[in-house]
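Memo to structure team: turn this sequence into structure tokens by end of day. - J.P.
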Amino acid sequence: MSRESSIFRIQNSKESFDGWLDRTLITLTHASSNSLQTGCWFKAIPMWKYTFKRLLAGVITVWFIATATFIAMHSVPGDPLLNDKAVSNEIRKNLEQRYGLDKPITQQYLIYMGNMLRGDFGISFTQQNRKVNDIIRDHFPVSAMLGVLAVCFAALGGVVWGALTAVYRNRLPDIIIMFLVILGISVPSFVFAALGQLLLVNINQFVGYSLIPVAGWGTVLHMLMPSLVLGLGTMALLTRLMRSSMLEVVNEDYIKTARAKGLSPLRIFVKHQLRNAILPVITVLGPQIAAITTGGFVVELVFAIPGLGRYFVQAVQQLDYTVIMGTTVFYGAFLVLMVILVDILYGFIDPRVRLQ
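Reply from structure team:
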């Protein structure tokens, strides 16, 4: 009797375990299904992998930029310590010891990489007792402010003109705007800078006083022409990209469905065409932000703006190794960071990117 009761208890426990296992599997299945439907499970794992890959690629890119800059600076002809001045051997040895140039090249590279990891770019060769970090901290905000204004001009103009050319395709507005786009892409920025200054001189002469300053920095009026000139190339690029994207979106099925539902042309344009056509613009906007913010060297020189680009050009002319390497690595890291941020943002906007 006890044997039969034991067998009965074992069978009951097995049935209860099987029932618990079935209920657990059903619960997990429903949870996974709900997670997939809401996008939580889809976003979690692929997004972490996607972000980690982008960050790892960014670190490798910055290391390559730093290494290539170090090799290039030690390969160019010229002596950064002389600077067209005759110095004695004793003074030269003291300078080499001060800047670490008396050590082997491999040891210099290791010291350079170690200092860079700590965020220390060294001391300028030409500006006495001034650190490269101080130069970046004092003058990069000026370049960044100029770049942000240029990006605002470029993004607004690119989206508006690109959408306008798509609406009036193969008509007079499209032809005129695309002609100006070709000019904006082809003509260098220093030509636009010179023409912009000439235009301001004529305007100031016409009104009889300095309405808009021709050069310098300090007020909003000083920023108008340099930011416009700096953003013209990017505006032309975004206009062309926006036009192509708008023309592709026009023939999509959801546009045809919206028209079949009887939606107004303005609502279709704003809610469906413009919203979907702007995604490629967002993709290139991040690198363009970094390029504009860090690429206004000539514009800063022409308009006498005390930005970081101006000091970079002076450092190249004077063979200031530490300033050149520090600003190059800083610019490269900033560009890589903007690209990574845009990639991650685009991964949230378009989930298909995370699975590629």
